[in-house]
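Milestone M4 deliverable, item 7.
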Amino acid sequence: MTLKTYNRLALTALYLTFVVIVLGAWVRLTDAGLGCPDWPGCYGHLTWPQNDEALAAADQVRPDRSVDVGEAIREMVHRYAAGILGILVLLLAIFAWKRRDEPGQPVKLPMALLVLIIAQATLGAWTVTMLLKPAIVTLHLAGGMLTFSLLMWLYLATRPARPANTLDQRKLRVPLVVATSVLVAQILLGGWVSTNYAALSCPDFPTCMGQWWPESNFSEGFTLWRGVGVDFEGGVLDQDARVAIHLTHRIGALFIVAVFGWLLLKLFRTPGLKAPASILTALLTTQITFGILNVVLGLPLWIAVAHNGTAALLLACMVYLLTRTSAPQRSG
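Output delivered:
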């Protein structure tokens, strides 16, 4: 396998990871996370119950909840896509090891990705067996975003021709690290909002229930670990706790605007980075718009899913800029 072919395999895995992230959001937002109460199969099947006999047997698994075939299909489609991604990452690790003596071939990064994928599979199983515990689901989301970021890094690192940078571009390293850190924190907050079903706890904008600072309970809202055996589907927090989570995410959005506004000014003033700066501006504007529309339109499914997908694209753009500013400096 040539480095060019390896790069294409990394790009394929990158595209599939984005699909998996979007499918995961679709499953979560359509309340299909427990569409299959077992793992890795679905009611003991490799697919899902498809006839009357199988449905009757599946209904006995959870007598309190009849089988929803639509939810089961969505959950299994997500698992199939994640399984194919796991195979691609395994291939990337195997070929990286075989090519370890070739110039320009990363080895540690593909191996780290393989470990991460195994951890993601474990979190996926725990998501089901621990009944959508918010801490586990949020970690699963974080793992997906990290997988996407590392695959972006691997794709960029294995391009046959990598653009050199300038000293001015290298000076942006610290602002980019700061902005990326703020973005990661906001993505985690968004995951916490979603897994605790707090997206509509403030149904108006820019106020929350007609107030700038309504009654809220931050200590309850940010209790990270709760008892085992509790079914978290639909959420277990009261309104004050959910309001606290939602308000924190909104405050985080203000930090995003401030920090990225500062970063974009620097990017647009740096020769050679105006194109990625324009893309970053478009993605950030789209993401903020989706966030507002989620509230004022009552969380439409396609907008909520797109909000997750755009967060991943923002992260990919930041990875590109980080690698671009750390490339070998152009001589002369």
